[in-house]
Amino acid sequence: MPINAHPPYKISNLMILASFMAAMAGYINTILLIEFGFPVSQMTGVMSILSESSFYANAELSLKALIVLFGFIGGAFLSGMLIGDRQHRQDKRFALGMTILSLLLLISAVLAILIHPLTLLTTSIACGLQNALIANYRGLQMRTTHVTGIVTDIGVYLAKLLRHKTWPWQAWLLVLIVLSFLIGGLFGIQAFKWLEGASLFIPALACLPLAVAWLRLEKAPAA
């Protein structure tokens, strides 16, 4: 994450956005792990599953892994088509991306109720879209759907804290993302116990007011 002591945006808004998106990713990933035994918000585990299933010639498991992998790539591609070179400013295209994310999760909820395998595809597309959208927020290259790199960065910041006695706001942001992902996962477990597949309606509906808020907060006109 680029260091900027005086960023051209409100740090509090960034903290809220990052925590919401990380919690949503943890929530979705946990639900898909419970219902289908598959992660959809981070590709490290998916690649390990693909390696194992390929070695043991498990075609069904390999197919599921490929569906998730290419779904995530497709979601990131969709974000790239929407945002283009706008990573350093925001406009209505980001709100459109959030609306599409909401629609993908609505479809996912219906499929999850039916316990349909295509739920893996729609949720992985949603996670890829979300990760790429937030990664482009103001050029911060921030990840919210997985925590491997974030935990690594926290370790680096801890070393800097011991050596230079500094703990910048970026470090607090990373800690917040990790905690939000964890809390989102906990809520996902409880929501699935109550609602099962319908629990995916919750993040789907939560994205819509965020899209509206994005339109209101970001004043930059579209090119």
Architecture overview:
This protein has 223 residues and is an all-alpha fold. The protein has one domain (11-217): Growth Hormone, Chain: A (Up-down Bundle), CATH 1.20.1250. Helices cover 74% and strands 0% of the residues. The protein has eight helices and no strands. Helix 3 (59-83) runs parallel beside helix 5.
TL;DR?
By secondary structure, the protein is an all-alpha fold.
Can you identify the CATH class? Mainly Alpha
Mean pLDDT comes to 87
Gyration radius, rounded: 18 Å
Q: How does the major sheet shape up?
A: none
Helix-strand string: HHHHHHHH
Q: Structural class, from secondary structure content?
A: mainly alpha
What's the number of domains? 1
How much of the sequence lies in strands comes to: under 5%
Helicity level = over 70%
Poorly predicted segments: none
Record keyword descriptors for this entry.
223 residues, mainly alpha, Growth Hormone, Chain: A, 8 helices, 74% helix
Set out the fold topology.
Layout: H1 11-36, H2 43-55, H3 59-83, H4 92-113, H5 119-135, H6 148-164, H7 169-195, H8 201-217
